[in-house]
Amino acid sequence: MASELRTETSSAETSPPLRPVQDDVSKSPDAESGYASATSSVGALPHITLTKFHLDHLNAQLERMHPVDVLRFAKVMFPRLYQSTAFGLTGLVTLDMLSKIQAEDPSSTGVPLIFLDTLYHFRETYDLVDRVRARYPGTTLHVFRPDGVSTTAEFESTYGERLYETAGELYDWIAKVEPLQRAYAELGVAAVLTGRRRSQGGQRDRIPVVEVDEERGVVKINPLVTWSFQQVRDYVRDHDVPYNALLDRGYKSVGDWHSTSPVGEGEDERAGRWKGQEKTECGIHNKKSRYAQFLAEKERRAKEQKIADAFETNKERHVEQPQPMEVEA
What we know:
By secondary structure, the chain is α/β, with parallel strands linked by helices. Helix content is about 35%, strand content about 5%. It is globular and about 105 Å long.
């Protein structure tokens, strides 16, 4: 998409030199709300088969590589590769690195973005989306919103006001999990780049570079998993990457306005997410919640009832009807 990116073998300690992307770039082409429907009308998700032996081998090698090289590997290794992002710092660094990799071979397949617009993002986040579009015009951006609505007013009219307070898991499902699964299905996503890092703590402190999300049928690649928050910030500064203005006001991780707060000195990067609550994730990276389990059980029972009804109907058709007795006059 823009300036040339030098190709070098690198380790986690030795970063390959990356030139800034110029504005005149070429326009060349653990328990939350996860739930996957078994009876969706959308076609089945594509699968990439990786044995545990193969996965362990890949992670052992990728662990020592610089994120740029991990991204180069992912572009070659995984078909139907997308980047899922809420335009946090790590995702923005990933996007900038990808734009430079793309400049090496503009005719190669790019990596489109998936953005989940919950309709409750900060104004600063929407402003950032516009700046990202302008900075990386050759990158395709797919926006997915809660099903059937396109504004906050429509969301609250359809699903209720302050749903994020009255039914948090249901909100996560409607605003984030279902739209992401719909994106995976409609786009045919086989592999996805995420912005998760171990230094973010919580459930992320042991994630590998590559993992298989069997529930959602995709391979997840976490290219900056070994980087610290400071390394990410340094890259953003050194390469003039656009970022959310809230980061200059005490925020480190930005999500929905109703569940994001500034963090204090010395607090973890994601300490401002769902502050005062036990949860640390919204559900898109976790296993099924109680709500998701309820949906799955409801679907299973409906399928069983449908089979039972079909069996009874078929049995009735084959029951021999009694013949009327003829009475002699």
